[in-house]
Design goal:
mainly alpha, about 75% helix
Length: about 210
C-alpha cells in the first residue's frame, strides 16, 4: 500500500490530536458522565466524520466548495447546534451527581448522537478531507477508490483511539475533582463558553 506512508500517519495523528469541537465534547462528557459515556462520545464523533469522508471520496464535497448557499446553510446549522450544546451545558451547571448508578443505554445513545451531529454539521470537514486525502493517493494507482477507502478507515481508527484516550483521561481526572462542586461548576461553564467561542469561529469561517 504505497499510499500508507509515514507522512500520512504522522499528519493524520497531528490533525486528530488537535483540540476541536469533538475533543471538547468528549472531554466534557468524560468529566461529567464517566468512562462509558466518553467512549460513546468518541464513537459518535468518529461516526460523524463518515459522511464527510464519503462526500470527499465521491466528490460531493465539491458542492460545498463551489456553492456559497449550500456552505452557508450547512455552516449556520452547525453554529446553531453548537449554541444549543452550550446552552444545555450552562443550564445543567451544578446538576451533575456522582454516584455508582449505571447510566441508561438510551443516554449513551443520546451522547453518541450528539457527538455525531457535532461533526456532521461542520461543512469545513468535507472540504478538509477533499483537500487532504487525495494528497496521499499515488498518481499511478489503478485503484484510487479503494485507496481512498483504506486511508479513510485508518483515519477513523486513529480518531477513535485518540478520542477514547482523551475521554479516559478526563474520566481519570474526574476522580480528583468530583468532590469539589465549585470546580465542576467552573468546568461546565468553561466548556459552555468554549462551545460559544467555537460557534463564533465557525460562523466567521469562509470556504
Amino acid at each position: 500500500m504505497d499510499m500508507l506512508t509515514t507522512e500520512f500517519l504522522i499528519t493524520s495523528l497531528i490533525i486528530v490530536l488537535l483540540p476541536g469541537t469533538g475533543v471538547i465534547f468528549t472531554v466534557a462528557t468524560g468529566l461529567s458522565s464517566g468512562r462509558r459515556a466518553s467512549i460513546s462520545a468518541s464513537v459518535g464523533c468518529t461516526l460523524g466524520i463518515v459522511p464527510h469522508l464519503m462526500a470527499s471520496i465521491f466528490g460531493l464535497a465539491a458542492l460545498l466548495h463551489t456553492s456559497s448557499l449550500a456552505f452557508q446553510a450547512f455552516k449556520y446549522a452547525g453554529v446553531i447546534y453548537l449554541l444549543f450544546l452550550a446552552w444545555g451545558m450552562w443550564r445543567q451547571t451544578g446538576s451533575i451527581r456522582f454516584d455508582n448508578n449505571e447510566t441508561p443505554a438510551t443516554s449513551y445513545f443520546r451522547i453518541a448522537l450528539q457527538a455525531m451531529l457535532i461533526n456532521i454539521l461542520n461543512p469545513k470537514l468535507s472540504i478538509f478531507f477533499l483537500a487532504f486525502l487525495p494528497q496521499f493517493i499515488p498518481t499511478n494507482t489503478a485503484t484510487p477508490l479503494s485507496d481512498m477507502l483504506i486511508l479513510s478507515f485508518i483515519f477513523m481508527l486513529m480518531t477513535l483511539a485518540v478520542f477514547i484516550s482523551y475521554g479516559l483521561f478526563a474520566h481519570h481526572v474526574k476522580r480528583y475533582i468530583q468532590h469539589s462542586p465549585a470546580i465542576m461548576i467552573w468546568l461546565q461553564r468553561s466548556f459552555a463558553g468554549i462551545f460559544i467561542a467555537l460557534s463564533a469561529r465557525l460562523a466567521s469561517s469562509e470556504k
